[in-house]
Amino acid sequence: MMYVNARAIIERETPTGTEILVQTRNKPHEGGKWIELPGGQVEEYESLVTALRREVREETGLTVTHVGGLDTKVNARGRGTNVECLRPFAVYQTTQGPVDSMGVCFRCRVEGELLAVGHDAEGARWVSVRQIAEWIAQAPDDLSWVDRAGLLFYLEQASEPDRSE
Asked: How many helices (H) and strands (E) does the chain have?
């Protein structure tokens, strides 16, 4: 069975540069804790963006105010069907590992107060893009294995803040 996930690359600009929101995965039955991006599994017939907003709210307490690529969304409706199509920031697929999954990463902005402990997550915090690069270079196994790919793609592809509305 393949799992489908929606992942949030939540950005904010500070006087010292761009920061990304990360959290620590808190699922004791998985046997470890990893630094990850907010996000999670898309439920049956749930849109990617709805899942993204729900997961960010459950895990961090924050409200997503902007989703990069949402302005490209189209709906194709037919008899008893609806299919959404939009341009996300990135898509990943596992080709080896403990779980067969694919995920869609969106660049986001948020508002609200961070939860100390969220659903399956704790320790949400803002870190610099430089810190992300250091983790990838020096301690890649401290990062969630799927989010490591999304963050590496972000470092290579996101040359400036997403200012689309």
From this structure: 3, 11
* Domains detected in the chain: 3-157 (3.90.79.10)
Sequence-distant (≥ 6) Cβ neighbours of residue 122 within 8 angstroms = 23, 24, 26, 116
On whether the CB atoms of residues 130 and 14 are closer than 8 A, the answer is no
pTM: 0.92
Q: How far apart are CA 126 and CA 31, in angstroms?
A: 25
Query: What does the alpha-carbon distance between residue 15 and residue 17 come to, in Å, rounded to a whole number?
Result: 6
Dihedral of alpha carbons 113, 109, 6, 124, sign: negative
Kindly tell me the sign of the dihedral angle through the C-alpha atoms of 49, 54, 55, 59.
positive
pLDDT 10s digit of each residue in the chain, 165 long?
999 999 999 999 999 999 999 999 876 666 667 899 999 999 999 999 999 999 999 999 999 999 999 999 999 999 999 999 999 999 999 999 999 999 999 999 999 999 887 777 888 999 999 999 999 999 999 999 999 999 999 999 976 656 555
